[in-house]
């Protein structure tokens, strides 16, 4: 059975974990964690079910609580958030969805986190040629109301081979093309959060449709699939 809300108990557990981020405490409270993990995974399944009405989702993934500390200065063994991602189906549907739940820092993220160098070059060439449609989509008032401005890391001046004086250099500089929507704890724990997640993911579609079109064609608009 899917779950339509996030419980306050799950957030209380994550708060306790952040104060007791060690193996002894975690092992002692593992049954409680497993119950919360199962409930949140069920919520993610509800998100996926809702999305099936307006997108094709290949798979839902829930991330493990264990941190990879091998190359990190922070040696705490556990994450203090619960997160999941949703992958779109096939080579023709591009973009990804992410949900991150933690007291004081919950968010949804969508878009293109780390496009491979071919995809990044293709996006930049499109923006160099004509960024007007891209700007129209991300500037549409109902879209901006939900998702705000484009986020993501950027190069400092211009990528190699691109003109730093180009009028759309602010977009061409981007290395990531993501949108982030933050939520308060009150919003996450409310009855309407599931609906709000679905509304947000549904609203990103014009952006995904445009980017899928760009990434599955060449600069002449011919399919490369």
Q: In words, what does this structure look like?
A:
By secondary structure, the chain is α+β, with helices and mostly antiparallel strands. The chain has a single domain, classed as BirA Bifunctional Protein, domain 2 (2-Layer Sandwich). It has helices at 8-19, 23-28, 30-51, 117-129, 132-139, 141-147, 169-172, 185-188, 193-203, 205-215; strands at residues 57-62, 82-88, 96-101, 106-112, 177-183. Strands 1-2-3-4-5 form a five-stranded antiparallel β-sheet. A hairpin with a 7-residue loop joins strand 2 and strand 3 (96-101). Helix 3 packs across helix 9. The longest helix is centred in the N-terminal third of the chain and has 22 residues, at 30-51. The radius of gyration is 20 Å and the shape is globular. The chain starts with 7 loop residues before the first helix and ends in a 10-residue tail after the last helix. The model has no long low-confidence stretch (mean pLDDT 96). It holds the Pfam family DUF2461.
Query: Which ranges are low-confidence, i.e. pLDDT below 50, for 5 or more consecutive residues?
Result: none
Q: Approximately how much beta-strand content do the residues carry?
A: 5-15%
- Helical proportion, percent range: 40-55%
Which radius of gyration do the C-alpha atoms yield?
Answer: 20 Å
Kindly report how far apart the N and C termini lie. Answer: 38 Å
Output the CATH class name: Alpha Beta
Summarize the structure.
The chain is an alpha+beta fold and 225 residues long.
């Amino acid at each position: 059975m899917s779950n339509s809300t996030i419980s306050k108990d799950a957030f209380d557990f994550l708060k306790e974990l952040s104060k007791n981020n060690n193996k002894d405490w975690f092992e002692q409270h593992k049954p409680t964690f497993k119950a919360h993990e199962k409930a949140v995974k069920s919520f993610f399944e509800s998100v996926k079910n809702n999305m099936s009405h307006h997108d094709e989702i290949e798979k839902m993934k829930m991330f493990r609580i264990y941190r990879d500390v091998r190359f990190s200065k922070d040696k705490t063994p556990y994450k203090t958030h619960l997160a999941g991602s949703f992958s779109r189906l096939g080579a023709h549907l591009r973009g990804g969805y992410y949900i991150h739940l933690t007291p004081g820092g919950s968010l949804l993220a969508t878009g293109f986190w780390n496009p491979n160098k071919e995809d990044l070059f293709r996006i930049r060439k499109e923006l160099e040629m004509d960024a007007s449609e891209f700007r129209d989509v991300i500037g549409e008032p109902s879209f901006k109301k939900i998702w705000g401005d484009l986020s993501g890391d950027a190069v400092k001046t211009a990528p190699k081979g691109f003109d730093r004086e180009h009028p759309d250099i602010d977009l061409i500089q981007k290395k990531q093309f993501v949108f982030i929507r933050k939520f308060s704890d009150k919003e996450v724990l409310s009855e309407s959060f599931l609906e709000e997640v679905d509304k947000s993911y549904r609203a990103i579609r014009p952006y995904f449709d445009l980017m899928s079109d760009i990434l599955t064609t060449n600069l002449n608009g011919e399919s490369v699939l």
